[in-house]
Amino acid sequence: MDLILQGIIKAFHLIVSFDPEVISITWLSLKISGTATLISLFVGVSVGVAVALNDFFGKRLVISIINTGMGLPPVVVGLFVTIMIWRSGPFGFLEILYTPYAMIIAQAVIATPIVMGISLAAIQNLPPNLRLQILSLGASRLQMVWVLVKESRLPLLAAVMAGFGGVISEIGASIMVGGNIKGYTRVLTTATVMETGKGNFDLAIALAIILLLLAFTINFLLTQIQQRQQSR
Amino acid sequence: MKQSPLLSAENLVVKRGKVTVLNVDELKIFTGRTLALIGPNGAGKSTLLLTLAGLLPMESGKIYFQSRQVSNFSDFVMLRRHAAVVFQEPLLLNMSVEKNVAVGLKFRNLSRAQIKNSVDEALAYFGIEQLAKRAAKTLSGGESKRVSLARAFAIKPKIILLDEAFNSLDAPTREAIIDDLQNILQKTKITAVLALHDREETLRLAHDVAVMSEGKIIQQGTTAQVFHQPINEYIANFVGTEVILEGVVKKSEAGLMDVAVSGHIIEAVGDFKTGQKVCCCLRPENITVSKTVPEKISARNVFKGKVLKAARQAYFYKLTLDCGFVISAYITIPSFDELNICEGDTLAVSFKATAVHMIKR
Amino acid sequence: MFRKSKIIITLLIATFLFAFGASTVFDAQAAPKQKNIILTTTTSTQDSGLLDVLIPIFEKKTGYFVKTIAVGSGQAMAMGQKGEADVMLVHSPEAEKKFVEEGYGVNRRLIMHNDFIIVGPADDPAKIKRLKSSAEALKKIAHAGALFVSRGDNSGTHAKEKILWKQAEIAPTGQKWYQETGLGMGQTLNVAAEKKGYTLADRGTYLALKKNIPLEILVEGDAILLNIYHVMEVNRKMWPKVNAAGARAFADFMVSRQAQEIIGKFGVDKFGSPLFFPDAGKKVEDLGK
Description:
The complex is a heterotrimer. Helices cover 78% and strands 0% of the residues of chain A. Chain A contains eleven helices and no strands. Chain B is built from ten helices and 20 strands. Chain B is an alpha+beta fold. In chain B, strands 6-7-8-3-9-10 form a six-stranded mixed β-sheet, sandwiched between helices. A five-stranded antiparallel β-sheet of chain B has the order 13-12-11-14-20. Chain B has helices at 45-52, 73-82, 97-106, 112-125, 141-154, 171-188, 199-205, 223-228, 233-239, 333-339, and strands at residues 7-16, 19-29, 34-38, 60-65, 68-69, 83-86, 159-163, 191-196, 208-213, 216-222, 243-253, 256-261, 264-269, 277-282, 288-290, 301-312, 316-322, 326-332, 346-351, 357-360. Chain C folds into two domains: 28-113 and 228-283, 3-Layer(aba) Sandwich (D-Maltodextrin-Binding Protein, domain 2), CATH 3.40.190.10; 115-225, Periplasmic binding protein-like II (D-Maltodextrin-Binding Protein, domain 2), CATH 3.40.190. Helix content of chain C is 44%, strand content 21%. Chain C has twelve helices and ten strands. Chain C starts with a helix and ends in an 11-residue tail after the last strand. At the A-C interface, helix 2 and helix 10 of A face helix 1, strand 2, helix 8 and helix 9 of C.
């Protein structure tokens, strides 16, 4: 108990004094997970919307695959990405194993199916005649898609929140493809595990608190936007 | 009839999967006139509407808009821009009313001022200016429907297509909206196609009627034509010929027929062959009742009938009489009171031979 | 509304791209052509903090970028065996020798040593305090049935531990008092402290965590407890893709006077005694005297 209290006290101290190591780890986490989430947003929304709005042979199968992807265990993704990019792998020549880029890739792979699945469901949940109604008002296909996407902005925002939340707290894949290299691929989650393993509980707790605060703040901001739209 | 049609279709076939859902030989829609599409559920009214609006692909057939054939992709896009559809559900977007009404205009690259003008005008048409800033999700059913209509009219389409637009509304709301719609259609002279269920609405709004069944159009013409000469039982029922009596032609001479109905003879105009099985259609408003048997009256059909039921409607009484066959008559309330009619009374029931509309069975 | 949300999104994207772009500057240190070196080492080496001092100096000097991947000795060498590492800094001599014999590693050079200690609860139920022989101590622990926590992860520490058990002629696996954590040194020490058990630890990690762990040093100084670190380069003939030049540069650095001096002084200010003893150029048999 004593240890935990000490840990929390030290934690606040580190945070409040803007300890440079803690700051850099936090910033790196944000950059990596943020970029991965952005990628998943673009790919996920565009593919999700496209699948929802078009009929094609094998559509059901594709939707099943997307839904399965939503529950993909992150470590499986990590292993798969590692195999692809290590030296003997097909993309080994890129030399991106143990770099932040590999982490972004892995996290994007984890987040994209989530965003895709939710976008797909959101569009499918719109009234079925809405698409025709918008077209009949004179919209081009692109304009129509934009209107439908805007109309689903609440669930899409939720999708982004889900994607971001998933990857900023992810550790298995991040440690596999990133290597937890100090100042380069060491992020909040991987650092927390390492410091715990070393027995530096105060630092570990500090990082954990920051991770919580980060996840909370981002989600709070997005929730604000969501609720504001709701009551408009 | 008049000028060439604004929109017409020839040999239109639309399939869903393997099933043919629409097979229309010919349909003509004229500028400035309102066409009602009527028919039972599943007849293909919505399909026809959406195909005419360029929203559903057709398997084969031709569509002509403003005398030019609509054939390739860009033609259809152009058709869509000139044809506005309003669905049964208002399908409003999650934004304010005025933004909703502006949606169609925004697609067209107009200036802010132009958009605002058109929006204000459309809101005024339907009397909803005061709702402009309200969030669309907070509106009542009637208000939403008005916004949906305003949105379609705002883009000043050449032709507007309404799919069962008044179904989900309660009677007074429906009345009010139909009033407004009628005014606007008369004022703006926009061509309209309405898929309708209700006979009153058809009578009020439509110049022309096309009756559909199982994907085909079985009767087309002006409202008067179709209402007074329905070519089958369904249409007869729809248009409100409540009295339908089955019988057989016994004699047919000089344009006048004797039809045997339940042991009585009804005289009707027409020249079907003897032995032809028919339905005699009568409108209750064409039936007269009197306390005494009239003499020297031009009506060729006079029967004695017992009053089975007298039901008071909003503006008249509906009498159900048994003359050997059951018949309905509408009489005004004052007349009912003056004649002192009660259930169980025996009255003389008369109607003209010309009022009997005959359908082959 | 349309425009506002577009602007916000564009700003967000721009910010991220800029911030991320800016941070890749440290990648562009230029100089050597293949500038990434993958160094695999053990968690205990990493956790001691020694590399955090040595590597920046090396990088600054040579322009290489060292990716330190800390895993157990077993995995560190397994990665070298697959050509996924360029150079290894490990402390599992038997395995290392085999590695070189099989042709996977070359240029195996002695860097430094520290030692292992047997730690345990202050009340010492098995009564092993101050025994000279580690084998003796382990025998007593086994006979007393006192809890012994093992790393059980094929790390260098675990390898050493297995040798000790062999010497004591005891087979601990499966016995009730023998628990394997599969965790790193720091965590294993925590588990041992929590459960009031004995464990084998390297002095460096123990000293680093001492303030939080109520375990005491009970047995030390036995020659067999020496923990010897070597550096090995992955054989380029086996894996042409390895950064042989980089590996050599790093290994050379580790035996250099500069590095060896730093090793000798590391930990003194914090713990009063150094955590490692520099040994470059010496013979293994001469160590620990």
